[in-house]
Write a structure and sequence with these properties.
The complex is a heterodimer. Chain A is of the alpha+beta class. Chain A has helices spanning 69-84, 109-123; strands at residues 10-12, 17-21, 26-31, 35-41, 46-52, 92-97, 127-133, 139-144, 150-154, 160-161. Chain A has a single domain (10-161), classed as 60s Ribosomal Protein L30, Chain: A (2-Layer Sandwich), CATH 3.30.1330. Chain A is globular, with a radius of gyration of 14 Å. Helix content of chain B is 45%, strand content 31%. In chain B, helix 1 (3-26) packs across helix 4 (101-126). The chains are: A alpha+beta, B alpha+beta.
Chain lengths: 162, 194
């Protein structure tokens, strides 16, 4: 699937989607029980942010692959390799989100999402440099592709840089 | 009748009733207007919220289940939630200074009132039986609450029908948002839709 390069400074990522930048954008999203995975190739300054909802794609009618940790990570890594010539072994990851939201349906999905993401990244040989997951509130993250730094603010807390 | 027109008719009637009940409850003119009813892509609609995604809001979310299924979300700016609490409790405006269990209860009660109006309208006007769940109250980033609402209401689909309504309390100029995700399959199963 072709992912267009956007020419604005900030790229927002919705649920079950990802954006890749080679132009020093700030890629941002807000997370509840979902996980945001920031992937960065430092020497080429290429970064991608994937916002996944669930750990694993179902066997039937999965829809968009980027909704799930397993198929979503596979897709973004393939696009980064095929279109941007980034070897996954050169990527570093930072993961955020996975909050335990109040409603029953989303209550423990955050932890499951985080566990699945870690497992897949490890299996691909991608080092997780930083992670901030869990809690009971939302996360606002801004991934600066020009530096690889992620600014993260959890609701009710001070902003941190990773 | 096309299912989206039927949903639109049901929702318009429900929010008309909700406006009237809310105005009486708050003793302030409350107007609820339907802003849109459309099929939306879950990624695009949540992406469009991200510009204001870190705005602090209060919200309540609940499910409606019975002859049809829907998911309901009400969102109010955190500062306006304090004014709203005063209106609900008949306090002088400015009495409530911070978000606490009292304001959470007020927002939860609003969720009960709005969902009660909607389910009553479904029942009286369209003979559709539906029961709302207990509202779950949030105080969090707008983007996080809305993303969770879409996640839970989508049933893993890529696109959903989304009803968006604007809610205005005229006297104090509070504007809030109401969202409904009707599970369209449940509407197809209704017998004798109008």
């Amino acid at each position: 699937m072709d992912k267009p390069i956007f020419r604005t400074n900030t790229l927002a990522v919705g649920v079950g989607d990802y954006k890749i930048s080679t132009d020093g954008h700030i890629i941002e999203t807000v997370l509840g029980c979902c996980i945001g995975i920031c992937l960065y190739e430092k020497s080429k300054k290429i970064g991608g942010l994937l916002h996944i909802m669930l750990p694993s794609a179902p066997n039937s009618k999965p829809g968009k692959p980027s909704k799930y940790a397993d198929t979503g990570l596979m897709e973004i890594l393939q696009v980064m390799e095929n279109e941007y010539h980034v070897d996954s072994k050169d990527l570093k990851a930072k993961i955020f989100g996975g909050a335990k939201m109040k409603s029953e349906a989303a209550y423990d999905i955050g932890q499951k999402n985080a566990d699945k993401v870690r497992k897949i990244l490890r299996s691909k040989g991608i080092q997780i440099l930083n992670e901030k997951v869990g809690g009971e509130h939302g996360y606002k993250i801004e991934f600066d592709v020009s530096t690889g730094i992620v600014r993260c603010r959890v609701f009710g807390q001070k902003e941190e840089k990773f | 009748m096309e299912i989206n027109r039927f949903i639109e008719m049901v929702v318009k009637q429900s929010i008309d009733r909700a406006s009237q009940v809310l105005s009486k409850t708050l003793r302030a003119g409350a107007k609820i207007e339907l802003k849109s009813l459309a099929a939306v892509d879950i990624s695009q609609v949540t992406e469009s919220m991200m510009a204001e995604g870190d705005k602090e809001v209060m919200g309540c979310m609940l499910d409606m289940d019975g002859d049809i299924q829907c998911k309901f979300l009400f969102i109010i700016n955190a500062k306006d939630a304090l004014i709203f609490t005063d209106l609900m409790l008949r306090n002088n405006l400015g009495t409530t200074k911070k978000i606490d269990t009292v304001s959470e209860s007020a927002i939860q009660e609003l969720g009960n009132i709005l969902s009660g109006c909607i389910s009553n309208s479904f029942s009286k006007d369209f003979d559709i039986s539906v029961m709302p769940s207990v509202p779950v109250v949030f105080n969090d980033f707008l983007g996080g609450i809305f993303s969770n609402f879409i996640f839970e209401g989508s049933g893993q689909k890529d696109s959903i029908w989304l009803v968006q309504a604007k809610f205005l309390v005229v006297r104090v100029q509070i504007e809030c948002a109401m969202f409904l995700i009707p599970h369209t399959e449940s509407f197809f199963h209704l017998q004798n839709p109008i």
